[in-house]
Amino acid sequence: MIVCSNCKHKNMAGSMFCAECGSQLVGTNELVTQNISTDNFKNIGKKPTGSLTGSLNANDAWVSLHLLDTGQVLPLSERNEFTMGRISEGQPIMPDIDLSPYQAYVAGVSRLHAVIKKRGSQIIFMDLGSANGTYLNGKRLNSNVEHSLTHGDIVALGKLKMQILVNTR
């Protein structure tokens, strides 16, 4: 217990300020600083280089989405169908793949933009009536029409471009 010198309130050990009056409990001369090694944090906050070498961790992924602007790779596994879009506050239906962290709003990605699914050995992609459209290798896709994808295809949700990497194992 630490007793406040101002109001004599008993505070829990380790408290910095009195819970009763708000006075500082520990003088600045009693605080100890420590050096923290930052060797393990050298690459945190750096933009990915876009290199795919060694960045694909999920060996069981049937397809991966390589985001061309950031170099990020999103492996898809466990299920055979994923909806793609961005999460918005108060949205009743959420996409399986939230592209919000990749500037999806600015790029014109709809809240529920497209779906990608595996049907046997075939990869199917479909626009779900998005506002800014979906493009496959530069050609705009019609809404609610399934299209077959192959390894290396470039898909754009609005202006957010990604390369399709099919795992053939």
Overall description:
The chain has 169 residues and is mainly beta. The chain folds into two domains: 33 residues; 104 residues, Tumour Suppressor Smad4. The chain is 2% helix and 30% strand. It contains one helix and 13 strands, in the order ββββββαβββββββ. The strands form three sheets. Strands 4-3-13-12-9-10 form a six-stranded antiparallel beta sheet, with no helix packed on it. Strands 6-5-7-8-11 form a five-stranded mixed beta sheet, with no helix packed on it. The chain is elongated. It starts with a strand and ends with a strand.
Concise summary:
2% of the residues lie in helices and 30% in strands. It is mostly beta strands.
The overall average pLDDT, rounded, is 82
First and last CA, distance = 62 Å
Write the H/E string, N to C: EEEEEEHEEEEEEE
Provide the number of structural domains.
2
Topology:
Blueprint: E1 2-3, E2 10-11, E3 63-67, E4 73-76, E5 81-85, E6 97-98, H1 104-107, E7 114-119, E8 122-127, E9 134-136, E10 139-140, E11 147-149, E12 154-157, E13 160-166
Parallel strand pairs: 5-6
Antiparallel strand pairs: 1-2, 3-4, 3-13, 5-7, 7-8, 8-11, 9-10, 9-12, 12-13
Key structural traits:
169 residues, elongated, Tumour Suppressor Smad4, mainly beta, 13 strands, 2 domains, six-stranded antiparallel β-sheet
